[in-house]
Amino acid sequence: MPDRSIEELESLLLARIATAASEEELEAVRVEALGRKSALAQAGKEMGKLAPEERASRGKLINRVRQNLEQALEARQQTLAGSALRTRLDAEWLDLTLPAPGPRRGHLHPLTRIQRELEALFSSLGFAVLDGPEVEDEYHNFDALNIPRDHPARDMQDTFWLEGGQLARTHTSPVQVRGMERLGPPLRMIAPGRVFRNESVDASHEHTFYQLEGMMIDRDVSVAHLIYFMKTLLSAVFGRDVTVRLRPGFFPFVEPGFELDIQCLICGGPGCPVCKQSGWVEQMGCGMVHPNVLRLSGIDPEVWGGFAFGLGLTRLVMMRYGIDDIRHLQDGDLRFLEQF
Ligand code: FA5
């Protein structure tokens, strides 16, 4: 290969090195320029065929070309590596001067919040806060509340029956019985908790919901006491006057028995799906404790009397926050929960 061809090859390769667009492309040019099968390596091998005086100058030329190519490859390599880094830095840019977001804080479920408010209120009025099992026996859920087997009142609360005669409690009233058994009279207690009913779900009915039971047993307790505590409870929850109505209601464990309704705070009265177009929402059952219930728990009804109530805590939460469908409260959707 004549010297001129070697110099032409050099400038061709230098141009390709200068325009290589990526490190991969540059590597391919490197193999072609300096690899074992390259034209330059070939020229080196053929030097033995040259006359001695030509050999020295050809050797110098080949060395100079190789050095030039090596330098050019090195320089281009640095440039490409630098721009790859810049591209990556641009893509993965992060402003370290921004304040860190920190862990996201949760908050109490609206139901828990109202439950705790009521626990604090009733504690301040001298009531004990009791808990009871969600898996109950028939005796505490029904018999001890004056609802014997075959009594039609058992059908009023569709029950999830469990194995061995146990059941998922249908109301918090069995905790009244446990309270009477354990603490005896005089007694002031509340019992918030979860209850279960085998019923079809709609805007105001869940199969799993919360109640708050209350009971006061003492000498000379009257309906006036009951009404006083009901009003205290409702004005604490709503922070304003709400219109209530008391109508007769049948529960075998109270006599007389009442249903307390509040005027629907979702529609304000004209009617909506929550109040079933009636303008009123049933909030609780209540009444004066039936003598049989006292007797069954070993309390003398000639000496002691009292009131009891069972408040629908879930419905109360709906009224306080204007929630128009009970199902929102338990479905765990954060878009709903984060509003509180
Ligand atoms: C009872 O459960 C009685 N144990 C209440 C009671 C206690 C009466 C003490 C007298 C003395 P009732 O089945 O009506 O009663 O339920 C009480 C409240 O729970 C209702 O007023 C209502 O607010 C709420 N409630 C009832 N069923 C549901 C349901 N499926 N979904 C949501 N809330 C309900």
Characterization of this structure:
This protein is α+β, with helices and mostly antiparallel strands and 340 residues long. It has helices at residues 3-19, 23-34, 39-45, 52-91, 110-124, 138-141, 174-183, 223-238, 291-296, 313-321, 334-337; strands at 128-129, 135-136, 167-168, 187-196, 208-218, 244-248, 254-263, 280-289, 305-312. Helix 1 (3-19) runs parallel beside helix 4 and helix 2 runs antiparallel to helix 4 (52-91). Bound molecules: adenosine-5'-[phenylalaninyl-phosphate]. Adenosine-5'-[phenylalaninyl-phosphate] binds at residues 157, 171, 173, 197, 199, 205-206, 209, 211, 251, 253-254, 257, 282-287, 308-310, 312, 314-315, 326.
User: What's the tally of helices?
Assistant: 11
Helix proportion range? 40-55%
Beta strands, count: 9
Q: Which structural class do the helices and strands define?
A: alpha+beta
Taking all Cα atoms into account, the compactness measure Rg is 43 Å
Average pLDDT score: 91
Biggest sheet, spatial arrangement of strands:
1-4-5-9-8-7-6
Q: What molecules are bound to this protein?
A: adenosine-5'-[phenylalaninyl-phosphate]
Which sheet architecture does the biggest sheet show? 7 strands, mixed
| Broad shape | rod-shaped
Q: State the assembly state of the protein chains.
A: single chain
- Indicate the proportion of strand residues: 15-25%
What is the distance, rounded to the nearest whole angstrom, between the alpha carbons of the first and last residues?
Answer: 86 Å
Order of helices and strands: HHHHHEEHEHEEHEEEHEHH
